[in-house]
């Protein structure tokens, strides 16, 4: 019997989980290959914790090959294009063929798309786009040296990984400055291109706006609504919005705009704009039955978090097995995601929701902090990334 070739694009959270779980659960011969340009896998939820000393940088990455099961092959290469009609993937090293494709390439951080952002990061000591690992690490020293002024966080108009991360950055910074005894000398502000800080009705995320607004009012965190960044005037340390408003900064943590990967958007028919088009429940591509997509590179109308990818992987594995066996697709993803919103040292709430409804109450507890900082990371490395997840 011929072996099925399963090709997984991307060794991030979704791709690694999917490859390992498939290797564990497939009941037929299959060759599983993961391709990624990086040989290192990073724990991205650490990026808003590293600046304040809650996680150490050296503990937040692992070799990709060390995470993959023995039955999964790793190819370090840059994906350059996908031809789903020929069932081929072009890389900068070779052409890879497949019978089934899982696209989990994530999204592309694009600080260069905002005039002045890249220059501000590279040429000054005041701007740190913390969704980049190097910027998150460098921000740690910057907040330690900060002695007052405006601390600013901005969010782009594009979809972003973990929409709660900018909010967490602002609240953890405010709490850090308070504990350092300089809070009276610091103004903290968050600017977003939306009307509300977390979610806009009718999104189920909006259920958590009231609690966020309450916390920000109590702690004097300013919210600049409907503020879309047009450029960063780094020579004068100010951010200009598309409607002409300006806000100054002394220490600035922008979220860079994020887009689809060029290999998919420019060199494949799998996307409609920026993201791979799939059925939001089955995760199967709209036009190609042998292609599935999960995580940040899929056009799913839910938040882009590792918790969402984790839930998607269970559905993907079941439905890919069904396609291989020529059976109907029965498993359905309901849009579940969860975002631990850390509000201060020792306190957090869990924003948890699916496509239709909020799930968790907007309540701050110490147990939520412990879950995010102490419990989830070892589960991430030792269970989820290894393809083990007892709670589908």
UniProtKB/TrEMBL annotation:
Keyword Chaperone: no
Pfam (any one): Pyr_redox_2
Single Gene Ontology MF annotation: oxidoreductase activity
Keyword Oxidoreductase: yes
Class of the enzyme per the UniProt entry, highest EC level: oxidoreductase
Alphabetical keyword list: Oxidoreductase
Database matches in InterPro entries: FAD/NAD-bd_sf, FAD/NAD-binding_dom, Sulphide_quinone_reductase
Record domain FAD/NAD(P)-binding: where: 5-121
Enzyme Commission identifier(s): 1.-.-.-
Domain of life: Archaea
Protein name: FAD/NAD(P)-binding oxidoreductase
């Amino acid at each position: 019997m011929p072996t099925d070739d399963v090709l997984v694009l991307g060794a991030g959270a979704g791709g690694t989980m999917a490859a390992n779980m498939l290797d564990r659960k497939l009941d037929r011969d299959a060759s599983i290959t993961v391709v990624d340009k990086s040989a290192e896998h990073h724990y991205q939820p650490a990026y808003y914790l590293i600046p304040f000393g809650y996680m150490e940088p050296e503990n937040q990455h692992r070799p990709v090959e060390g995470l993959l099961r023995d039955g999964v092959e790793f190819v370090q290469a840059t994906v350059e294009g996908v031809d789903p009609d020929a069932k081929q993937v072009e890389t900068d090293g070779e052409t890879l063929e497949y019978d089934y494709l899982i696209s989990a390439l994530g999204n592309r951080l694009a600080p260069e798309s905002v005039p002045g952002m890249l220059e501000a990061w590279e040429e000054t000591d005041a701007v740190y786009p913390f969704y980049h690992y190097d910027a998150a690490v460098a921000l740690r020293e910057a907040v330690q040296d900060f002695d007052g002024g405006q601390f600013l966080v901005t969010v782009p108009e594009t979809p972003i990984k973990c929409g709660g991360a900018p909010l967490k950055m602002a609240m953890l910074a405010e709490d850090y400055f308070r504990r350092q005894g300089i809070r009276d000398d610091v103004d903290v502000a968050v600017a977003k291109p939306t009307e509300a800080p977390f979610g806009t009705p009718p999104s189920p995320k909006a259920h958590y706006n009231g609690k966020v607004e309450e916390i920000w009012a109590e702690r004097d965190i300013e919210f600049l609504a409907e503020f879309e960044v047009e450029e960063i005037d780094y020579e004068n340390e100010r951010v200009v919005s598309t409607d002409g408003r300006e806000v100054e900064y002394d220490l600035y943590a922008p979220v860079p705009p994020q887009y689809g990967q060029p290999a998919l958007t420019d060199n494949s028919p799998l996307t409609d704009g920026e993201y791979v088009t799939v059925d939001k429940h089955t995760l199967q591509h709209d036009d190609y039955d042998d292609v599935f997509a999960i995580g940040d590179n899929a056009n799913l109308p839910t938040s882009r978090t590792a918790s969402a990818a984790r839930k998607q992987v269970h559905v993907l594995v079941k439905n890919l097995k069904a396609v291989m066996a020529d059976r109907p697709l029965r498993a359905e993803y309901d849009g579940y995601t969860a975002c631990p919103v850390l509000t201060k040292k020792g306190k957090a709430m869990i924003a948890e929701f699916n496509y239709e409804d909020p799930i968790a109450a907007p309540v701050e507890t110490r147990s939520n902090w412990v879950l995010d900082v102490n419990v989830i990371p070892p589960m991430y490395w030792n269970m989820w990334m290894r393809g083990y997840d007892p709670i589908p």
